[in-house]
Write a structure and sequence with these properties.
With about 120 residues, this protein is mainly alpha-helical. The chain has one domain. It has 5 helices and 2 strands; from the N terminus they run H-H-H-E-E-H-H. A two-stranded antiparallel sheet has the order 1-2. The N and C termini lie far apart (about 50 Å).
Length: about 120
């Protein structure tokens, strides 16, 4: 409960959100923390995510070239604030419990492909 409360209060207020604005969620924090904690915990326990939390907004970003060619766009997905909270809660848990393999470099803060290559070269020799 405290962890979810802290995550909500540390949310950056942005305009590009799905569903409720983050400002409203911060204002309602004291009232929604316990129900959200229960929802997130049950979701993780049962392996079921409510459909409403799976909705994201996809925005096509121009990669350059002819704007009429669909292959010149890449999709960017904007997550809902609730999905961001679940992600941050899981990330915090995984880091705190040292669950990730030490050679997991992708999708980790402070880890890069350059470090992965250096580590591979070190292990090779």
């Amino acid at each position: 409960s405290n962890e979810i409360h802290d995550l909500i209060m540390n949310l950056k207020v942005t305009k590009s959100v799905i569903g409720l604005p983050q400002k409203i969620i911060k204002l309602a924090c004291d009232y929604i923390t316990e129900p959200l904690t229960e929802l997130f915990n049950q979701s993780l326990l049962r392996g079921v995510v409510p459909e409403i939390l799976k909705i994201s907004k996809i925005t096509p970003i121009d990669k350059g070239g002819e704007t009429i060619d669909p292959t010149n766009y890449r999709p960017i997905s904007t997550l809902s604030v609730f999905e961001k909270l679940v992600y941050k809660q899981l990330l915090s848990y995984v880091e705190k419990e040292h669950i990730l393999f030490e050679f997991q470099f992708g999708f980790r803060k402070g880890h890069s492909t350059t470090q992965a290559i250096s580590k591979q070269k070190l292990l090779k020799h």
